[in-house]
Design brief:
single chain, 270 residues, alpha/beta, ProC C-terminal domain-like fold, 2 domains, 8 strands, 52% helix, binds NADP nicotinamide-adenine-dinucleotide phosphate
């Protein structure tokens, strides 16, 4: 398997983000991807927007894909696997991004020879800047693992984790963009309060967020060290930091991620 064909079962928000990311990478063309959707209007949308064949027949797509990627809601995973499980033979890899759905649960529907990779990405797949965490079953060969990680790395940064950490990754990686969007919107509202137009303010807030994140990723410096570089003694930033501490920003974020991770554990259909 060099460049595997990818069948994406469920072309909702995440399925679409993955299609967009793979096509933007330039490594994939529309012919290398097929999708499956239940709603006719959605099938037409995917077909017209991405020129990707979008079918209603999940079995056809499962036959097409070397990688069969489940992007349906966690509660639907069992139903889909009942249909396609018998079609997945040695040489194909099942990839699932369904929150909370364990490798053990999916294993029950598949032959022992078919490897499974449980993945937790986020919506930034669409701009190829996702954090993509994953855990494979032990029966995966090195070649199959390389093929899957190469495909996933077109969508952002990949990191292999023990399965026990994947629910935690759901709270942080999967849900994380929503928390950051809220923070960007709050920063932008602050700009509006001070008299800036909202669109200008959103650009200032978003680019500031992007730059700050890039500093952490590229320098490898601890975020607290970077924060200390911005906050000069008796300066303006430290006044703002005091307000964030008073408002319990850190405690609130820690508890939000913990709640989301707990919820992911509760989504397993097993
Ligand atoms: N949203 C995120 O940021 C995020 C991040 C990481 C992981 N995930 C995981 O990604 C998965 C998809 O989430 P999402 O946000 O993309 O949800 P979504 O927008 O609801 O997408 C799921 C899609 O699958 C379709 N579908 C349902 N049953 C199907 C079937 N039998 N065959 C083919 N397609 C079917 C749905 O159609 P209908 O609308 O008609 O039901 C829907 O379009 C979930 O398991 C979630 O846990 C999501």
């Amino acid at each position: 398997m060099n460049k595997p064909k990818v069948a994406i079962i469920g072309a909702g928000k995440m399925g679409e983000a993955i299609i967009a990311g793979l096509l933007k990478s330039g490594e994939y063309s529309s012919r290398d991807i097929q999708a499956v959707e239940v709603v006719e209007s959605r099938r037409q949308y995917i077909n017209q927007t991405y020129k990707v064949k979008c079918l209603s027949d999940v079995k056809k797509a499962a036959n097409f894909g070397d990688i069969v990627l489940l992007a349906v809601k966690p509660s639907v995973v069992g139903k889909v696997l009942e249909q396609i499980g018998p079609l997945l033979k040695r040489g194909k890899v099942l990839v699932s991004i369904a929150a909370g759905v364990t490798l053990e649960f999916m294993r029950k529907f598949l032959s022992e020879q078919v490897p499974i990779v449980r993945v937790m990405p986020n919506i930034a797949c669409s701009v190829r800047e996702a954090m993509v965490t994953f855990c494979p079953t032990s029966n995966i060969t090195e070649e199959e693992l390389a093929t899957v990680t190469n495909m996933l790395s077109l969508l952002g940064r990949v990191m292999r984790l023990d399965e026990k950490y994947l629910n935690l990754a759901t709270g942080l990686v999967g849900s994380g963009p929503a928390y950051i969007y809220l923070i960007i919107d709050a920063l932008a509202d602050a700009g509006v309060r001070l008299g800036l137009p909202k669109d200008v303010s959103i650009t200032l807030a978003a680019q500031t967020t992007l730059g700050a994140a890039k500093m952490v990723v590229e320098t490898g410096e601890h975020p607290v060290k970077l924060k200390d570089k911005v906050a000069t003694p008796a300066g303006t930033t430290v006044e703002g930091l005091l307000e964030l501490e008073r408002g319990g920003l850190r405690a609130t974020i820690i508890s939000a991620v913990s709640k989301a991770a707990e919820r992911a554990r509760g989504l397993s259909p097993a």
